[in-house]
Amino acid sequence: MPFHEQVDMHTERSEVDSMHTLLAIPPNFYSIPFGLVGLARGWRLASNFYGLPVWIGNALFLLAAVIFLLFLVLLIIKLLIAPKMVLADLTNSAVGPFFSLLPIIGMLLAVGLAPYALSGARVLFLVFFVATVLIGGWYTGQWIIAALDADKFGPGYFLPTVAGGILGADSAASFGLTGLAWISFGLGIISWLMLSPIILNRLYLRPNFPAALIPTLAIVIVPSVIAGNAYFTLTGNRVDPVAYILAGYTVLMALVQLRLLTLYLKLPFSPGLWSFTFSYAATAAYALRWLHLQHFAGATLLGYIVLAAITLFIGGILLRSLIALGQGTFLPRAGNS
């Protein structure tokens, strides 16, 4: 065979392998833009509170949007050429719930766009909000009829309805859609009350969590943190008994995260570590809100420290991910998703 034909065949094979690799990306990779949009929201808060440059938050929103659109395009391609792979992702008992992150991220990005294109951002929010509610309803029904693996039922199951509902409430309130926001808040809070005993029972009483899913333990802090943030948005930053109750449970879950450090520090680097990013970014944003509301001596300095810490943490994971991507060890191999 002539050399140029060998080169052409090798090139075609490489392109096919690359496409298979991209299509094999599992839903937990959606944690990447989720974490970046969480950091962007934190920087936007800091810009409002401390007068920091707006462009930093905007740049993070833009980066999250680019990665989000990449995953969205890949999903559309996957639906067209390999719908069974999409169904397998949806019903995967370990990482399936992460599929719900796509419409949730879309809602948060719409809020990020609002200061610059309010009408268009509101339409995008409503589209992604409807998608979030639909997928949350689908998962709730799926969990009723499916034979679930109890040992893989963990904090990731908070994402479709709890995170979707509460973040939908926060986003709707940002657009002045108060009634819709309270409806969505109710959806998220009641789902939290239903799922929390099941998830904690599994964590307390069942065998140790699979190593690959240990990063998702960071998600246990998410419900109270995002509920606290959403409650402030809904009430105009009112500090009342409900706000204190949510803060109290958040403190408990933060202490749990400290105890779990002995597990976390043993983890090798993997894309799964992105599960930490939104959890801690949302926690940092919640801390910034409380620090801004309390106005005690040193609160501003502490706010800067919180912002710097979460930026360095997520920036470090991003840098390590880029290095792994360059080394060809970040993306999954086709057939091993």
UniProtKB/TrEMBL annotation:
Q: Membrane spanning segments where?
A: 21-43, 55-77, 98-118, 124-145, 181-200, 212-232, 244-265, 272-289, 301-323
* MF GO annotations: monoatomic cation efflux transmembrane transporter activity
Q: What is a single cellular component term in the Gene Ontology annotation?
A: plasma membrane
Q: Where does the UniProt entry say this protein principally localizes?
A: membrane
Query: Pfam families attached here?
Result: SLAC1 (PF03595)
Q: How does it sit in the membrane?
A: Multi-pass membrane protein
Question: Where does this polypeptide localize?
Answer: Membrane
Record key words, sorted: Membrane, Transmembrane, Transmembrane helix
Protein name as catalogued = Dicarboxylate transporter/tellurite-resistance protein TehA
Please give the organism. Answer: Dictyobacter alpinus
